[in-house]
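Comment on this:
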Amino acid sequence: MILVNTDYITGKELEMLGLVKGSTIQSKNIGRDITQGFKTIVGGELKSYTEMMNTARALATKRMVAEAEALQADAIINIRYASATVTQGAAEVMAYGTAVKFK
């Protein structure tokens, strides 16, 4: 499966199959949430949240690819990511793009 954030793939003629997406909502456990709260006082990277968001993006991408594979797509173009806070310490990550088949 080819994944790109452009609206074309060089040298390929594309047939659009439709929108595909994947999403997940992730949170950290209360102990890590408290320690990350203390980190905001002194500044610096919140590594626990960085890891959480990286895991969420990977899972959302995997789910998007599964949707595209169900359509027998060869690639996903125009991939975008969006995130939103759901509640304190929890975030939704969505990956979406256009599934295409090579002509």
Notes: The helical segments are 30-42, 47-70. DSSP finds two helices and four strands in the chain. The longest helix spans residues 47-70.
